[in-house]
Structures are given as structure tokens and as C-alpha cells.
Design goal:
Length: 501
Amino acid sequence: MTSPLTASAAHERWTPRLWGTLLVLCAAMFLDALDVSMVGVALPSIGSELDLSTSTLQWIVSGYILGYGGLLLLGGRTADLLGRRRVFLIALGVFALASLLGGLVDSGPLLIASRFIKGLSAAFTAPAGLSIITTTFAEGPVRNRALSIYTTCAATGFSMGLVLSGLLTEASWRLTMLLPAPIALIALIAGLKLIPHSEREKKHGGYDVPGAVIGTASMLLLVFTVVQAPEAGWTSARTLLSFLAVAVLLAVFVTIEQRTASPLIRLGVLRSGSQIRAQLGAMAFFGSYVGFQFLVTLYMQSLLGWSALQTALAFLPAGALVALSATKIGAVVDRFGTPRVIATGFTLLVIGYALFLRISLTPHYAAVILPSMLLLGAACALVFPSLNIQATNGVDDDEQGMVSGLLNTSIQVGGAIFLAVVTAVVTANGHGGSSPQAVLDSFRPGLVVVTAIALAGLLVTLPGLRARRPQQTVLVAKSAQEDESVQAERETAEGRVAVRD
């Protein structure tokens, strides 16, 4: 269903209510991304006050990722079926309550539980919010502008999470947990007034309960297995059996989706080359950045002896560059098309990671670290909005939640998988001793892997550059059989019209 606000969105000047709706959605996405990165710097303080072991501390991060990455597919389809506004607002309320709980608890298990609940609620707000935008703003320049602002807020939240965490942890780690609560509450109150109502999707096939159960179980088990693999061992019996179980569950899930009348994920959407490139690009982009941030944080605090605040400020130029570009990327995409913008961003990403390989035990911020941060900020500003635009273009309104959930799942699963890979590589190369130089030498292979992941993302994007007219988009076919008259028309036009992937 198209929102009643779409007509207003079609004009160059947006109404105050339209801006308000976008602001509410941006606030929720900002909080989702903020929570992924903000807890990292606070972990030492949390462990000290609550007397938690390193393995328990890991679950404060992993619990959020498990809930977020494991339930995104269910969250996206639920938004389509039960109403995007309803799902978004309920999940945002749960997020606020879980944030309050996380800041008040005095035990590790309760803190981990609050983090899991926050991840779970984010798994519903993220795809619901993105699908509200794509069904409210008409496809084309208007939607591109809205998505560039929205996704830039997400990237800014992730980048600024370290900065805010460094500042707040100086006072108390509890503030890092409590900060999202009032922001989420304000966004919830505003959302009740501003977000347009949407109808449930009406399908005769009903709900895909088996697909929802199996799909959710497979994603939860996959994320759990990847998160635990570095500790349990990649070749351990537990890890291998878990991966085998994931493969079996995914095979059952695909079978269910092929046979049900109302699938959780319509597999035909993945016949689109641009859709596949968007999903794989999202995995490579976020996975490489999470691995990079992990290594850089360790490098700055463990080897250079920088404080949490100094480390946070070192990332500030990247976050600031992303924030300043919020209103400009949509116009860039309109002019050049998503494949070119994404390829350019991945190129900057590869160069930025490669330049960081020059690090040493002597900090050279202006000459070594800053250039990488600026390149990464520019890459993030270009790639993240463009991936969202490419994934949602040409998709019917009643499947926007599904595609949004699929994209966010790719982002989170990619982050979990590649962070685990980078961690394993660093651990495998960490047997040269405990001296600062030996530790630094163990980081370099991890940075090489991060660079290789970004390079793979670039290679995935390159086939899309064959498109010659970025103004056109391909609609994702809802059936393998096409109407004969449409097919004849297409064959007649072939050679005269270049259609973007």
C-alpha cells in the first residue's frame, strides 16, 4: 500500500509532517546503529564493576548481535503482514524499556538479557522503518534523497557510537546503556503522531509460520555458531556440527519457501542481479568495517596506550564526514546510478584499509591514521545509502519489509562472520610473543584480510557497471512466467534502451 503522504513526497519541497516522519525513522535507525558500537569502549568498566569474565563480557556484544541478526528476516516480513507502523512503534517501545533495564541492572546475566531484547527489538524497527520510507517516498530522486539521509544517520550512529561511549564511560558505563532510552521514548511519542497508518498485507495464503520458525532458527544458530567459533575452535566438533545443522535448516527453509503461498522470503527476488550484488556488497562492506574497527581499537588502546576518549576522537573525522554528506548522496546517486557510486565507495574503502597497513608502534596520526579515516568516511557515505537504494528499488510496496529485513540480515550476518574470521586470523598469528612488536605483527594479517574483504565487495559490484542509463531500474519479477505481450515489447525495445541492473 502506498502511503497517503507519497503525493506530498513527490514534490521537491517536503511538508513538515513528512520531514517529521523521516526524523523519527532516522532517530530509531541512529539508535540501532549506535548500540552496535557504543558498548565496546565501556566493556572494561562493566567487567570491573560487575566482576565479569572476558567470555561473559563478549556476550554483552554478542547478545545484541544474536537478537538483531537472528530475527531480522522475521521482523521484515512481520512489518509487511501486520502493518509497518504498528510493528515499528511497538518495537521502539520495547527498545526504550530494554535500554532502561540495561542501565539499572547489577548482574551480568540480566545485562546480557537486556542486550538481547534490544537486539530483538532492533530487528523489527530496522526493516519496518526502512519499508515505511520506501512506501512513503516515491521511487526515484525523492526516495533516493530520503534514503541517503536515513542511511547516513545509521552510518553516523555507528561511527559516533565510539565517540559517545568514550565520553560517557568517563562518567559511568551505565550512561552508555541509558542514553538510548529517552531518545527512543521521544521518537515513540513523535511517531504516534507523525508516522502514517498502513494496512496489513491481505493474502489468501495466510502466514508462513513454518518458514518463520525455521528461518529464524537458522539465522539464530548461524550467528551463534559464528560468534562462538573463535572460542570453541573453527574445526571443533561443536562448530562443525552447528554449521551442518545450519545448512540442514536452510535447506528445509528453502523448500518451505518454494512451496508456501505466502513465503517469509519470496526467493524470486534473488533472481535480480542488482539485488544479489546489494546483499553481497552489504556483507562485505559492514563485515570489513567491523573487523577494521575491532583491530584499530585494540591497536590504539593496547599498543599506543590511548584512552577510550582519545580512541573515540581518532574515529571522529570519519563520522563527521558521513554526517556532513547526509543530504548530498541522493543527488549523486540520481546522476551516476548506484553501481558506479558503490564501486567508487568500495575503491576508497580498499585504499583506506591498505594505507592503514603502514601503522607502527609510533603513532603518526596526521600522516598514517587520518588519511585512512577520511577515506573510510567518504566510502561509508557513498556505499551505505547506495546499497539501500539498490536493494529497495523496483520492489513492490508489499515486499519492502521483506527486502529491508533481508538487507539488514546481510549486514549483521556479514559483520558477525567477518569479525570472527579476522579474530581467528589475528589469534593464529599471535604466537610470536607478547612484546608490542609481536602483537602489532599479529594485527597485520587481520588488516590484510579486512582489505581483501573490501576488495571482494568491489569485485562483486563491478558487473553492475555495464549499465549505461542510471535513471532506469529493473522491477523484480513476481513470477518466472512473463506475459507474452510484455515480453514482445521488451524484445522490440532491446538494443534501444539500456536498463540499469
